[in-house]
Structures
1.
Amino acid sequence: MNWDAIVIGLGGVGSSALHAFARRGLRVLGLEARGIAHALGSSHGQTRLWRRGYYEHPDYVPLVDAALRGWRALEAETGARLVEPVELLQIGPPSGSLVQGTRRSAAEHGVAVEELEAREVQRRYRGALRVPDGMQALSERGAHLLWVERCVATAVAAAERAGARVQSDAEVRSWRAEGAGFAVETTRGTEHSGALAIAAGPWAGTLLRELGAKLDVRRKPVFWFEREAGAAPLPALFVEQEDASSYYAFPLPGGALAKAAEHSGGDPVADPSRVARDELPHDRAGVRAFLERIAPGWRGVEAGFEVCLYTLSPDGHFFVDRHPEHARLAFAAGLSGHGFKFSPALGELLAGLALGESQVARPPFLALR
């Protein structure tokens, strides 16, 4: 069948792109190699953090604001609860990239960030959190948690209600330019479209190999821990340590469990379809040491384990652009472990780029490079 557009990959960004095409009244097909909201890529794990104090670069702040508007619009359209308010506490060396970058974004965009002394953190959280000597704490009370799988499933369902079609278990083998459009070969057959959007997460490197973009896939062990008996409820945490390694711990709403993992590091992955999904002997030590040092309130019983995949660009910034040889092909890749929160904004951007909409303004720092 001939479609106006095809979206390859229905994780966070792809599901949002599918919805964006469908809202335009187009005949759009979404292709997902596995099931909707599956746990084998990068768009799973219960929660993601939305924040405005964006240490990576101030230019992300307008984009993350647009994304929150998109999540709120999806909630209003569907009645789903996708976003939960949470306090975020970021801790790091005063001269480190986390503290300096957060201060810069806060100053440029008027982000409400409170600087806390170690003794105030100790008092506020009754000893369940520690700020080591020489470290600075920054509190952002306007942060949010996103329910990941619910976000993906809700965006796909909304797209289908708007007329989109979805094929699950349809792994893409290849795509090619064909006339004025594209042919996409899957394990279920060949589909044709006038526009194409690729948001394939860890598999993007294979589908976009000819672009030469360096994409480094990493295996990320993720743990859930119970809160220590009697410990105070804790905020979401993001911590840069003195050696530049970074860790996070996000409480689930209700406060009984927290998700914790190392944001830096990770084992290199040669084939995203062949990843060790069980816990390995070296997976736990760094996370346990982080919790013991910073968040002893979360060092209780291990309550769950999962593996997430990061797809890193060389500089940690996204690739969101048109294909240099095919103007109606747009792609998002290399989201580097901090892309999910942007999904509504990036999905809208992908659709606009693939359709050649003149009003679409892609932030320059997202260009293929």
2.
Amino acid sequence: IMKLLILAFFIAGAYGCGLPTFPPILSRVVGGVDARPHSWPWQISLQYRGSTGAYYHTCGGTLISSQWVLTAAHCISSSRNTYRVYLGKQNLGVANEPSSIALSPAKIIVHENWDADRIRNDIALIKLEREVATTDTIIPACLPPSGKILANNAPCYVTGWGRLWTGGPIADNLQQALLLVVDYATCSQPDWWGSLVTQNMVCAGGNGQQASCNGDSGGPLNCQNIDGTWDVDGIVSFGSSLGCNYPKKPSVFTRVSAYISWINNVSHTYFQQQPNY
């Protein structure tokens, strides 16, 4: 019986949250590097359908359960009425990667207090048309505990198909970059981001070497727990128009731990509703 229990535990634990089958290679390389394929299996590509019928990558996002994706409110546009969520992607330039699946949204919920002028509450949830099975290449990230505050200089990784340098093209292969967290006391100083940053945000990078670029919008700031699991602690929100990695202008993320009750409320509200926009 003990053998059965142990086996059952490992089967249940094999696909929890935040534990990739193929762990990321955590380099300290300055700037973005190609990620090990499928080492960030919760990373999604949010794509919209253009006038020709072709789909275009517009933002990143994070799978947080079998049917819910977290992204930024500013990624959702009322003028783009057809989206799809691509899961299990590594190379955006490869049309039919065997590990990947594209699903339509059943529901898109933008935070009711999203303020585009002041970039507040930059968070949205996408309910997928159906539940997605967990595989080696599609695994949800863990949500942080409510109220979690990252320590200054905590090492986290931003991932996405964003621009690798200011004005550059978006990347084909998924990128990762190490960013060190900048605490609120520092980031809110007048010569940093000042009052534009609130305590519901996380700053990271801004050392003039590493930062996320605009193509990464909506994607995760991934931070590892002591037990090896990964939380999605941030959602890429905004950066400096001066460039991707300007000194004292770190990337700014929506702090996910400030919105746990909102995430829970939304996911429970739409738990059994039929698809509609």
3.
Amino acid sequence: RGAFVWPSGARYEGEWLARKPHGRGAYVAPDGCAYDGEWLAGTPNGVGVLTSADRTLRYTGRLHNGVCDGVGGLVCDRSGTSYQGLWARGKPDGRGCQTSIDLRGNARHTDGVWQGGICVVAH
């Protein structure tokens, strides 16, 4: 277990194996984007939380090679939009539900099957 700060200002604190983040750890990029979760050989792999630099976007779920992949949820605090379900290659893909807020403040739910980030079958 340990911490490291790169010349760019990026920093990681957590478990290491063969001089790479491996196990449980937290990383903050120079721009403030952050990841806290499981690592495998220097790459986010497993369950974790990705947060945007301004803290308005948050993904909680499974990642594979640093990309949202598997079961997870994304919340946008600014718009009130969220998606919970399956992901593949960084986009909603498979069964999931998106909730958005219209201009009158009403919630709209789109439950269905997603492909490449687009709802192709709504229930």
4.
Amino acid sequence: MDATVIAAIISVLGVGFLGMLGYFLQGIRSELRALRTEIGGLREELHRLDVRLVRVEEQVRQIDARLGRVEATVEQIETRLSRVEEAVRQQGQQIDKLETRLGRVEDLVGEGAGARVPA
């Protein structure tokens, strides 16, 4: 074969190969553009989620602060309730003592009434 024929064959094959390579690379470029667009959208979505997360964290801090105040109030109420329960217990003891004394007084009055002589 002549060198020019070989050069022509190589040129035709080279052009064909480069054409296929260009087509392949064009597909890759299109995919890369699509991926860049998608990544940009994902970045925006991530930013929106980050903003929402900051808001949620602030709400959680506010709820924690409120919960702390509620817990402190509950502790105060429990302390007061304990004091009231103790006062009720002491009042119950006083009532028991008074009932005992009243029973004794009634017994004494009953004994005294039986010992009286009608006039």
